[in-house]
Structures are given as structure tokens and as C-alpha cells.
Amino acid sequence: QVQLVESGGGLVQAGGSLRLSCAASGRTFSSYNMGWFRQAPGKEREFVAGISWIYRIYYADSVKGRFTISRDNAKKTVYLEMNSLKPEDTAVYYCNVARDSSFAPSDNWGQGTQVTVSS
Fold this sequence. Notes:
Elements: E1 4-7, E2 10-13, E3 18-24, E4 34-39, E5 46-51, E6 57-59, E7 67-72, E8 77-82, E9 91-97, E10 113-118
Parallel strand pairs: 2-10
Antiparallel strand pairs: 1-3, 3-8, 4-5, 4-9, 5-6, 7-8, 9-10
């Protein structure tokens, strides 16, 4: 099991920005397909963005043009840069070691980091 530790969440006004980080353990981080997901109160967890081990990148339609996913294999870290935040982006954000390049989530989750966007 890969340990994942998310950080960078917080309270921000609408239109603001945050940068989330997810630090991973494991010797083969560079071979992982990594995803960011989020879960708002009363809603199911949903896919936000994914970056494959060969740097293919995918976004949910709701965040395209506002969020940017990236990775630093030397630091074993994946990032989520979030700009033009909206109140509907409020959720707990989780990173995940995806099962494959389709970013179907595995059971390997971090503890999550809360993002709250005020209007």
C-alpha cells in the first residue's frame, strides 16, 4: 500500500486560487497513474483530474481551463493547481493511485484535504 498525504487545502474566496499537494511513498512512484478526486457533502466522490505515468492528462469538464495537474517524480509528489475557484468546488480533495490509465480509483487513498470556497 502506498501512503499518500495531501496538503494545501483551506478557505478561499470565490475567484481565488489554491495549490494542493499529494506526497507519496513507494519506490516506483514514476510508474503510478495518479488521480485527484473530490467529495462534497451529501455527494459521491468524483474524478477531478488525472496524470498518467507517461504524462497523459485528463480533467473533468467542470474544472477544465481552471485546474492544472502536474507531477514531480523526483519528489514523489502530484499537484493540483486550482484557479478561478467557485463555491461548487468546495469539497474534500483526495489523491489516489489509480488502477490504470483510465483513472478508475483503487482503494489506495490519502486522508484528504478540505477546500472551502466562499461566495
